[in-house]
Amino acid sequence: MSFSIANLLSQHRTDKFDLHEQHLNGQMVRVLKTIGYDRNYQRAVGQYLYDDQGNEYLDLLSGFGVYAFGRNHPTIINALKEVLSLDMPDLVQLDVSVLSGLLAKALLDTTPDNLERVFFCNSGTEAVEAAIKFARYMTRRNRIICCDHAYHGLTMGALSLNGEQIFRDGFGPLLLDCGSVPFNDLSALESALSNRDVAAFVVEPVQGKGVNIPDDDYLPEVERLCKKYGTLFVADEIQTGLGRTGKFWAIEHWNVKPDMICMAKALSGGFVPVGAVAMTQQIMDSVFNRMDRAVVHGSTFSKNNMAMAAGLASLEVIRAEHLVEKSATTGAEIVSRINALTGQYEFLKEARGKGSMIAIEFKSPSSLKLKAAWMMLEAANKGLFCQMITIPLFKEHRILTQVAGHGMNVVKLLPPLILNQRDVDHVLDALTQTIADTHQVPGSIWELGKNLASHALKAKAG
Predict the structure, then answer these.
(1) Pairing of strands 56-59, 117-121
(2) Domain 74-320 falls in which CATH fold?
(3) Taking 80 as the threshold, does the pLDDT of residue 460 lie above it?
(4) H helix intervals, 43-155
(5) What does the mean pLDDT of the chain come to?
(6) pLDDT exceeding 70 applies to what percent of the chain?
(7) How many other C-beta atoms lie within 10 A of the C-beta of residue 255?
(8) CA distance 214 to 211
(9) What is the dihedral of CA 141, 147, 66, 131, to 10 degrees?
(10) Domain 323-461: which CATH number of 2.40.160.20, 3.90.1150.10, 3.20.20.120, 3.40.50.920
(11) pLDDT (tens digit, 9 = 90+) per residue, 275-312?
């Protein structure tokens, strides 16, 4: 009897939640069922998901940015099929591969001209780990600085640079000598660097948690201060890169040249994990400085042919479909149309973003009835109001979004870069209706709010 994935899926098409409850993280299943996200998706095409009832969902989460080109893109599928058909040697280890060389060259064609070398790995957190190690070796310093509310990954080194305490709690003591400074605060950064003991400052050009955008002079001054104090400037573009912000790299908005760029997510095309660090020649040569050090850092599955082919195909999709430009124009339209609503709705503070990385922030209203409802939610759990936006968007309008971070009243949109006008209109219509519903107190959406508050208070008490 031949092995068949299709047969396995057919036999177990309704078993996924039971399997996860029995063998994986059961708490994730509990979360999905509690908020009504327990769907049996059967198919995915581009920006759309389809459940077992044939319902279409618009995915504005895109796998935390992995599916920047949508799911199951035919160009990337064809590239992977071709690799499988060629019987290529792979991961010989005592060898080097053509595809990894081609992908490195193609990536460096997109980066600032001071970056001349690439190190490949399997994920964003591995890219950050590599940047930490390379920075410490190059500078012979131990300390690494990041920003408050930063997110750089969950392995032990990257976790040391995580500015969200919830991810760190219970996993300490962490391994690295690290510190954090407020994002967009140059005086705090200079104070942290002035002892000349910092190997690297690792920063997201646009912070993922909250979609925080720096002042125009921030990153240019970061570059200057890092040079002044002998610290390497590392741009974490794992989420912001490859067209997400309306430039190929987010750093292009500010014309800066970091010493390293960390990348992953969209580079995979959503199929085979791939991460990378682009860096200066000096950094690469300092780490791999003798033949006996040629293997002092690496990863068994990095540079595998499937991952490299996925990366090359992803770059071709970005070029051929003009996705950098599309990201900029689509994102600007969404932000502009949401901001046009701020005068109509008290809860709505603003929309902001770069390209297709968008935040919708909510605030305490002025009218007494709405303010009392807001305070009820805030007392139960800060940031709970946003669940009253994301849950109805999903259940009533079949749009998948996320809250931008813990304890903040910000909804985040991270859509595929391929949205069409119908998608944009659907998003704006759904958002407008949902925001309008929150202003009806009492109302059905506030019954949801009361249930959310009750669950939050029980969790605190437990």
Answers:
(1) unpaired
(2) Aspartate Aminotransferase; domain 2 (3.40.640)
(3) no
(4) 62-65, 74-85, 98-108, 124-139
(5) 94
(6) 99
(7) 10
(8) 10
(9) 0
(10) 3.90.1150.10
(11) 999 999 999 999 999 999 999 999 999 999 999 999 99
175 pLDDT higher than 70 = no
Phi, psi angle pair for 367, to nearest 5°? -70, 145
Say how many CA atoms lie within 13 Å of 381 toward its Cβ.
Answer: 21
**Are the C-beta atoms of residues 70 and 418 closer than 8 Å to each other?**
yes
DSSP bridge pairs for 239: none
Provide DSSP, 194-236: TTS-EEEEEE-SSBTTTTB---TTHHHHHHHHHHHHT-EEEEE
Distance (Å, whole) CA 166 – CA 158:
14
For the record, the structure tokens of 196 come out as: 């000349």
Q: What is the model's pLDDT at position 462?
A: 65
Q: Domain locations in the chain?
A: 74-320, 323-461
pLDDT tens track for 40-92 = 999 999 999 999 999 999 999 999 999 999 999 999 999 999 999 999 998 88
Strands 357-362 and 348-354: antiparallel
Terminal CA-to-CA distance of the chain, rounded, Å? 51
Nearest partner of 122 among 81, 168, 155, judged by Cα: 155
Q: Give which of 63, 38, 212 is closest to 123, Cα–Cα.
A: 63
d(CA 460, CA 462): 5
Taking the CA atoms of 52, 57, 60 and 65 in sequence, report the sign of the dihedral they define.
positive
Residue 230's CB: how many other CB atoms inside 10 A? 13
